[in-house]
Design goal:
binds flavin mononucleotide, 12% strand, two-stranded antiparallel sheet, alpha/beta
């Protein structure tokens, strides 16, 4: 089976694992969230697994709220800034893609374009950029804003942000810089294209002061599950991270998203849907269940409540954990992460989950609440089922605790997927676009250019 018919696999690395109790696991290094040697080891491990890319999530504020819970959390508290980290990891790796998050709500497009273009040059074309609108409202106070922009406004801004960044990446033709010592000419002005953008949120003249990137443009990623999130992905993204509770909703999401692309003049294969997956891998199903139960048991109730308070956008401090959340406490909607909020409310509507059951399900698998626990065969079965059903083009592996969660996935699940002919045995290309089977974008000419 050729590469582009195989599963695409990205790995999400955050702090010492996405699980809120990861740092309490004796196997995770204390302080690993800010240890470059540790992160270099993780990136090289992911490269050994021939994974498509290594992704680092990011938020623009350290967790606030109920200190009783927050003081017990490592996740989302203090860690590397993703692009700085990726530039260093680029020097220590050679094939794995490097994808980092940037906020379209709290970043300047000129800076974003410059940083990711530079990272693409530094990494030899292995860069991806994950555009998020930043759901976490406390970030506003770190950027001199009294209020956090409304969800719809954040996405309107995100659309213009992406267009400006793409426009800046098209500032120079690939062969603009002739660097001709004989004539003393460094570049040809006719191959330089200032942007002259005037929009609702941005006025950006350009050109970008970085030559065209090896990939033309870094690979565009997003992760929005809401209506405007899906529209942004269908119009501009090449990879989208999705969170789905079950196979039918994953199939519906996939069909919906791919079905929106034609109206933007795009073909479905120009976008890869990577479904978020939280695997807990063990030698056997029983061994995996035991390890999983041990990690779950380390979740302190204050941490569980604090974590739920973020995605349900309501303060749950002090609530008894072996009873459901009183309906009257739950807001009708959220200005934060709409898709997670809707999925959690749906789950609470279906079963009267107690606070403990809810935070345990979300701790294991944020939003989708569908962690997979078992042997390599069990995990591969679930992945093959969704992939073969056409519900996804691959997976975004959210690693629970590091390094063990990544080691187990690379040493046990990857060989099982390779044995089934579902995943590559060797990298065949050198850029992230090669790995993902994505074409190199041509320079787009828009009227405002000279
Ligand atoms: C795999 C994955 C990774 C994500 N990474 C980030 C991130 O790094 N930073 C962030 O603020 N949001 C991140 N998100 C959240 C999304 O950007 C977005 O806020 C969320 O999916 C909800 O979007 P919606 O309001 O459009 O439903 C991620 C979501 C997924 C599924």
């Amino acid at each position: 089976m050729s590469d582009d018919k195989m599963m695409k696999l990205g790995v999400l690395i955050s702090d010492v694992g996405v699980h809120p109790a990861a740092w309490l696991d004796p196997g995770t290094p204390l302080g690993g969230e800010i240890s470059f040697p540790f992160y270099l080891e993780l990136a090289r491990r992911a490269e050994e697994g021939k994974l498509d890319f290594f992704f680092v999530a990011d938020t623009l504020a350290s967790r606030t709220g109920d200190m009783a819970g927050v003081m017990r959390q490592c996740a989302y508290t203090a860690h590397f800034e993703p692009l700085t980290l990726m530039a260093a990891l680029a020097a220590g790796t050679s094939r794995i893609g490097l994808a980092a998050t940037i906020s379209s709500t709290y970043s300047e497009p000129y800076n974003a374009a410059r940083m990711f273009a530079s990272l693409d040059h530094i990494s030899g074309g292995r860069t991806g950029w994950n555009v998020v609108t930043t759901a976490y409202a406390p970030a506003a106070a770190n950027f001199g804003r009294d209020t956090h922009e409304d969800h719809a406004l954040r996405y309107r801004r995100a659309n213009e942000f992406v267009d400006v960044v793409n426009g800046l990446w098209d500032s120079w033709d690939d062969d603009a810089f002739i660097r001709d010592r004989a004539s003393g000419i460094h570049f040809l002005p006719e191959r330089r294209h200032p942007l002259n953008h005037e929009g609702e949120f941005y006025r950006v003249k350009g050109p970008l002061n970085a030559p065209r990137a090896p990939q033309g443009r870094p690979v565009a990623i997003s992760a929005g599950g809401s209506e405007p999130g899906k529209e942004l992905a269908a119009r501009t993204s090449e990879v989208v991270f999705s969170v789905d509770r079950d196979l039918p909703s994953a199939l519906a999401y996939y069909k919906d998203l791919k079905g929106r692309m034609a109206k933007h003049g795009r073909a479905p294969e120009e976008l890869a849907v990577l479904t978020a997956l939280n695997p807990f891998v063990g030698e056997t199903d029983a061994q995996a269940q035991d390890a999983f139960a041990a990690l779950q048991a380390r979740i302190h109730p204050d941490v569980g409540r604090a974590m739920l308070s973020v995605d349900l956008d309501v303060d749950l401090r002090g609530l008894p954990i072996d009873e459901p959340i009183p309906d009257e406490m739950l807001p009708a909607s959220t200005n934060a992460t709409k898709s997670y909020f809707e999925m959690m409310k749906q789950a609470m509507g279906e079963q009267k989950l107690t606070v403990r059951q809810l935070y345990e399900a979300c701790a294991a698998s944020r939003g989708g609440m569908n962690a997979v626990v078992g042997s390599a065969k069990t995990i591969a079965d679930r992945m093959e089922e969704w992939f073969s059903a056409g519900a996804t083009d691959g997976f975004m592996i959210r690693i629970s605790h590091l390094p063990e969660g990544l080691d187990n996935f690379v040493s046990m699940v990857v060989p099982e997927l390779q044995r089934r002919g579902l995943f590559r045995e060797e990298y065949t290309g050198s850029t992230l676009r090669d790995h993902l089977g994505l074409a190199r974008p041509k320079i787009s000419r828009c009227p405002s250019r000279d």
